[in-house]
Design a protein that fits this description.
Blueprint: E1 4-7, E2 10-13, E3 18-24, H1 39-51, E4 56-60, H2 73-87, E5 94-97, H3 101-108, E6 114-117, H4 126-130, E7 136-140, H5 158-176, E8 184-187, H6 196-204, E9 217-219, H7 224-230, H8 238-250, E10 255-258, H9 261-279
Parallel strand pairs: 3-4, 3-10, 4-5, 5-6, 6-7, 7-8, 9-10
Antiparallel strand pairs: 1-2
Helix pairs in contact: 1-2, 2-3, 8-9
Pathway: Cofactor biosynthesis; tetrahydrofolate biosynthesis; 7,8-dihydrofolate from 2-amino-4-hydroxy-6-hydroxymethyl-7,8-dihydropteridine diphosphate and 4-aminobenzoate: step 1/2
Function: Catalyzes the condensation of para-aminobenzoate (pABA) with 6-hydroxymethyl-7,8-dihydropterin diphosphate (DHPt-PP) to form 7,8-dihydropteroate (H2Pte), the immediate precursor of folate derivatives.
Catalytic activity: (7,8-dihydropterin-6-yl)methyl diphosphate + 4-aminobenzoate = 7,8-dihydropteroate + diphosphate
Length: about 280
């Protein structure tokens, strides 16, 4: 029987890869900083992704690129709330990319469907903010913390450390809500405190990260781990990003977080067709 993922108002049967589209309502994100900073631009981008076949929209109001400045909760909400209000009935789940518990509470009150936390709900109050909701929850594994999240730790056994972290966080979540497991997704956090070699190793070992049978999400789109390998600028990383998303699915990812929705959806349709023929 295919595993199900409860994502707020929506439920996914994970019999195919899920595509999450990135909407950065920020002036300084590494890939598209400023392009969708205005409310109208972000909304138009979201509806284009919906037309292209996106399954989940992931909206972020603070950049996590190397060197980016932290923003206040009030500024983050100022960026997020108008976009959430405009898209709340768009027909696909809305995920909010935030690590701040007060932001989580505010957006959950607006009936968003998922919280995507790069800190893996380690901030004081984060678990309490989300445990009693019906939101999907993405627990990301970061080496280090929010202040040094792009420093590398080359001697670390990233698979072992990720499993320790996921097991600890899931155990804590279960104490808050024993029925929470069908709402949790795990993300190895590619690019956050890992070397290039560690990032690609984590992709090759995805199935070893499936703690308590949780679905897995991978976000690699346009990241420096791709640019440094293929020697391409951010704007030239489309083919490599789509390839990496496709390979991640082949190694076990259930959800891929991407900028280029149409191209990823098309590629996954081919993979799904091949897999369907293999199952006959």
């Amino acid at each position: 029987m295919d595993k199900k993922f409860q994502c707020g108002r929506f439920e996914f049967v994970l019999n195919r890869p899920i595509v999450m589209g990135i909407i950065n309502v920020t002036p300084d994100s590494f890939s598209d900083g400023g392009v969708y900073y205005s409310i109208d631009a972000a909304i138009n981008r979201a509806y284009k992704m919906i037309d292209d076949g996106v399954d989940i929209l992931d909206i972020g109001g603070e950049s996590s690129r190397p060197g980016s400045d932290r923003v206040s909760s009030s500024e983050e909400l100022k960026r997020l709330l108008p976009v959430i209000e405009s898209l709340k009935n768009c027909g696909v789940p809305l995920s909010i990319d935030t690590y701040k518990p007060d932001i989580m509470k505010s957006v959950i009150s607006m009936n968003v469907d998922m919280i995507n936390d790069i800190c893996g709900f380690t901030k004081p109050g984060a678990m309490e903010a989300v445990a009693s909701s019906n939101c999907g929850l993405c627990v990301m594994y970061m080496n280090g913390n929010i202040s040094n999240m792009h420093d590398c730790f080359p001697n670390m056994d990233v698979v072992k450390d990720a499993n320790i972290f996921f097991t600890k966080q899931l155990s804590s979540f279960i104490k808050y809500n024993s029925s929470i497991m069908n709402r949790i997704v795990l993300d190895p956090g590619l690019g956050f405190g890992k070397t290039i070699e560690q990032n690609y190793y984590l992709i090759s070992q995805l199935e070893k990260l499936r703690v308590l049978s949780c679905p897995l999400m991978v976000g690699v789109s346009r990241k420096s781990m791709i640019g440094k390998l293929v020697d391409r600028s951010v704007s030239e990383r489309l083919c490599a990003s789509v390839s990496c998303a496709l390979i991640s699915v082949m190694y076990g990812a259930n959800i891929v977080r991407v900028h280029d929705v149409a191209e990823t959806v098309d590629s996954l349709k081919i993979l799904n067709a091949i897999n369907s023929n293999e199952a006959r």
